């Protein structure tokens, strides 16, 4: 008995220490002032969304297990939420920054996000998730470095470079929104930006004089890690650097089998890390190119994204034609084969010392299957809308997670169909009922004529297959059950399907959406609600003290919320020393 109670007291103490260590993980703090600035990336002045006066915003630089605190001040004239794309928000969909989980930050308010980047490494990005704002900027990179004790599957790079690429309109997000609300198509974008800047003047006819372009300076004979994110509206881009190989190393938090590519297709919302060796003779600068994919070149009379790779010993300006893009505008087979060639390095360590492939996803039995089918836009109740499985999602005025917390009834329906509806499409707040600790298979079937990319919050999923035609049960025979990549955003080619597997181990309400902004804006999304039936605080963090209220709960909102984060400072030195010793011993278990 005595031993038993001694042990349980010990256990309580260890638990206490572990939870304090969690609090003792380092903090990284950022202040984000989000406002409009005037910029002319394509030579025409327009209002863009800046963070701390900069477009793109600062790169968040963190390390696994860091507590990230971002105080967001909304100086726009409309609501704001920042979404951390690919950051898994373990146990806390409260911080995800999408309308299903958070009330928006009203103009003139600030709200402080606080979350731990748990068990992740890799290259991610953030962006404003409401009202088409991403089309006006407001985005930036988000790096999670490995902890020192975790080896990475390549030598430490000599530098780390973030590159944001994306299609761009000279109309601002309010104008684009207005077009969509009026049932119009957005038409062709006006160009492609690299790091918020227009193209280097690669062609005097196409590119007007005086446009500011991006220059990336490198030293010869080194290796750089370059992290490339497609943050555009809806265009798949081909990324390449003249005369250089791109050694693919990581995508959205997973190390890949390392392979050289002369160019890689990066679809909207996707992130990749390449290792770039500066092994050329620097007789000139080199072009860095992000060009639109699958467009009719005789119609796409738009500028391509062109930046400059400048060696410190460069002997002259970049000149001549841009390096060739894959010459297959209307045949996506090359692109699909390239996507299939991106595989998981199962023996590399991820965020933990154990191999990435120690979770044998191919041997786990699927517990639920959803076929999600998108179609070209339709008219519902006189409005142009997009659908997923025949449902056009309507965001509730009370976020789903908040409604659950306060038991507000009738906010949403847990009835998202497992197979596409065959009747007339409809507008609904219809949500997927995910089973906690279930293993879900989702088939994304693209019946539209454009590439779509799909993203899920809260998880990395395994991309196990993609092919043309309609998915059938027999398609499972082609699945990669061994080294399919784990990531958070996958492309689905038109007239084709992509199959993903998701281990539903993260409690919360998670957005599943297309990344193509126009399709998303018009309703192509849903949420997956994952609830632990057991009443415990271990699988989900409590609602943050500063949570905003809106919709049916708006009367709970205080006019000003001035809650301060509690500090662990001021505890006794002895206690702190003991804590440090225990903390130093446990990282290996986490
Ligand atoms: C966006 O563009 C419209 C039309 O050009 C203009 O009236 C409006 O002021 C702009 N809004 C913002 C927020 O820049
Ligand atoms: C991130 O911060 C670490 C130090 O914590 C530093 O070594 C590294 O160079 C930084 N990375 C970038 C891309 O700024
Ligand atoms: C996979 O990771 C291991 C362990 O870090 C590394 O030694 C190996 O080179 C990597 N393999 C490939 C093909 O990238
Ligand atoms: C510049 O672009 C125009 C229009 O696409 C094209 O006709 C012309 O050949 C290009 N010039 C050069 C030097 O490539
Ligand atoms: C990739 O290309 C570089 C030359 O740019 C070469 O040195 C390296 O061996 C190649 N790596 C692989 C894995 O093919
Ligand atoms: C540099 O390399 C290019 C090919 O990449 C070659 O055409 C050129 O002659 C080389 N210049 C010198 C000075 O070696
Ligand atoms: C590209 O557009 C031009 C001009 O509309 C058209 O004549 C041509 O047939 C198109 N090419 C393809 C392959 O669709
Ligand atoms: C998966 O299902 C099969 C057949 O239903 C069963 O024999 C097997 O034990 C299951 N595997 C696991 C890991 O649960
Ligand atoms: C949701 O799924 C759980 C099992 O995970 C089941 O118990 C529950 O009845 C389902 N709810 C609805 C509304 O279908
Ligand atoms: C869309 O679905 C219909 C009916 O299944 C099929 O006939 C058509 O080929 C599909 N189109 C695309 C682009 O997938
Ligand atoms: C969870 O934590 C809250 C306070 O944060 C507490 O009120 C509640 O009783 C806890 N629930 C359980 C099941 O421990
Ligand atoms: C808002 O930001 C200001 C300036 O950083 C800070 O002093 C204040 O505490 C913040 N308020 C809230 C509610 O986070």
As residue ranges, the low-confidence spans are: 1-21, 561-590
How would you classify the helix and strand content by structural class? mainly beta
Q: What characterizes the major β-sheet? A: 6 strands, mixed
Going by CATH, what is the homologous superfamily of the largest domain?
Cupredoxins -  blue copper proteins
* CATH fold-level assignment of the largest domain: Immunoglobulin-like
Distance between the termini: 31 Å
Count of DSSP H/I helices: 6
Into which percentage range does the β-strand content fall? 25-35%
Radius of gyration: 24 Å
Q: Helical content, roughly? A: 10-25%
Number of domain modules: 3
Ligands in the structure? Answer: 2-acetamido-2-deoxy-beta-D-glucopyranose
At CATH's second level, what is the architecture of the largest domain? Answer: Sandwich
Beta-strand segment tally: 32
Features:
6-stranded mixed sheet, mainly beta, binds 2-acetamido-2-deoxy-beta-D-glucopyranose, globular, 590 residues, 34% strand, disordered N terminus, Immunoglobulin-like, 3 domains, 6 helices
Q: How does this structure look, described?
A:
- With 590 residues, the chain is mainly beta.
- It folds into three domains: 2-27 and 543-589, no CATH class; 29-328 and 335-340, Immunoglobulin-like (Sandwich), CATH 2.60.40.420; 360-531, Immunoglobulin-like.
- Helices cover 11% and strands 34% of the residues.
- The chain is built from six helices and 32 strands.
- The strands form seven sheets. Strands 10-9-12-17-14-15 form a six-stranded mixed beta sheet, with no helix packed on it. It has a six-stranded mixed beta sheet with strand order 21-20-25-30-27-28. The chain has a five-stranded mixed beta sheet with strand order 11-19-18-13-16.
- β1 (27-39) and β2 (46-51) form a beta hairpin.
- α1 (2-24) crosses α6 (573-585).
- Bound molecules: 2-acetamido-2-deoxy-beta-D-glucopyranose (12 copies).
- The site of one 2-acetamido-2-deoxy-beta-D-glucopyranose (NAG) has 7 residues, from β4 and β6.
């Amino acid at each position: 008995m005595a031993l038993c109670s001694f042990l349980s007291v010990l256990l309580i103490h260890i638990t206490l220490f572990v939870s304090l260590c969690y609090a003792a993980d380092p903090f990284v703090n950022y202040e984000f002032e989000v406002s409009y600035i005037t910029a002319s990336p394509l030579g025409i002045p327009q209002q863009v969304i800046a963070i701390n006066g900069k477009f793109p915003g600062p790169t968040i630089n963190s390390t696994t297990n860091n507590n990230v605190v971002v105080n967001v001040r909304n100086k726009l004239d409309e609501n704001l939420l920042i979404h951390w794309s690919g950051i898994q928000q373990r146990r806390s969909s409260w911080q995800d920054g999408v309308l299903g989980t958070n009330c928006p930050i009203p103009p003139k308010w600030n709200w402080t996000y606080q979350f731990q980047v748990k068990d992740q490494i890799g290259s991610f990005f953030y962006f404003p998730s409401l009202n088409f704002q991403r089309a006006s900027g407001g985005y930036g990179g988000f790096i999670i470095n490995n902890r020192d004790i975790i080896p990475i599957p390549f030598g430490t790079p000599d530098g780390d470079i973030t590159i944001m690429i994306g299609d761009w309109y000279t109309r601002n997000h309010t104008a684009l929104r207005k077009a969509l609300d009026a049932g119009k198509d957005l038409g062709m974008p006006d160009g492609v930006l690299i790091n918020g800047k227009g193209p280097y003047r690669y062609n005097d006819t196409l590119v007007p004089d005086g446009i500011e372009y991006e220059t990336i300076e490198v030293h010869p004979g080194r290796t750089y890690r370059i992290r490339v994110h497609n943050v555009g509206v809806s265009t798949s881009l081909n990324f390449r650097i003249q005369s250089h190989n791109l050694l693919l190393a990581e995508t959205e938090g997973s190390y890949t089998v390392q392979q050289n590519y002369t160019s890689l297709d990066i679809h909207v919302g996707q992130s990749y890390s390449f290792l770039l060796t500066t092994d050329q003779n620097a007789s000139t600068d080199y072009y860095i190119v992000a060009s639109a994919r699958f467009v009719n070149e005789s119609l796409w009379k738009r500028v391509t994204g062109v930046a400059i790779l400048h060696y410190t010993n460069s002997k002259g300006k970049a000149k001549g034609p841009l390096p060739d893009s894959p010459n297959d505008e209307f045949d996506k087979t090359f692109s699909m084969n390239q996507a299939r060639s991106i595989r998981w390095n199962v023996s590399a360590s991820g965020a933990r010392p154990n191999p990435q492939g120690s979770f044998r996803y191919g041997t786990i039995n699927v517990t639920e299957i959803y076929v999600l089918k998108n179609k070209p836009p339709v008219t519902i109740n006189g409005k142009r809308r997009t659908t997923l499985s025949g449902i056009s999602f309507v965001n509730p005025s009370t976020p789903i997670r908040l409604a659950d917390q306060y038991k507000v009834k009738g906010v949403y329906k847990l009835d998202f169909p497992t197979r596409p509806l065959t009747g007339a499409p409809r507008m609904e707040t219809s949500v997927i009922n995910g089973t906690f600790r279930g293993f879900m298979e989702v088939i994304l079937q693209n019946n539209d004529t454009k590439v779509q990319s799909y993203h899920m919050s809260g998880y990395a999923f395994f991309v196990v297959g993609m092919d043309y035609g309609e998915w059938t049960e027999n398609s499972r025979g082609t699945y990669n059950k061994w080294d399919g990549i784990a990531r958070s955003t996958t492309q689905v080619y038109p007239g084709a399907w992509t199959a993903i597997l998701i281990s539903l181990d993260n409690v919360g309400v998670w957005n599943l959406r297309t990344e193509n902004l126009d399709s998303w804006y018009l309703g192509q999304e849903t949420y997956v609600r994952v609830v632990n039936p057991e009443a415990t605080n271990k699988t989900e963090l409590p609602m943050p003290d500063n949570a905003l209220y809106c919709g049916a709960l708006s009367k709970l909102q205080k006019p000003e919320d001035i809650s301060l984060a509690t500090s662990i400072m001021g505890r006794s030195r002895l206690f702190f020393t003991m804590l440090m010793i225990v903390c130093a011993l446990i990282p290996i278990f986490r």
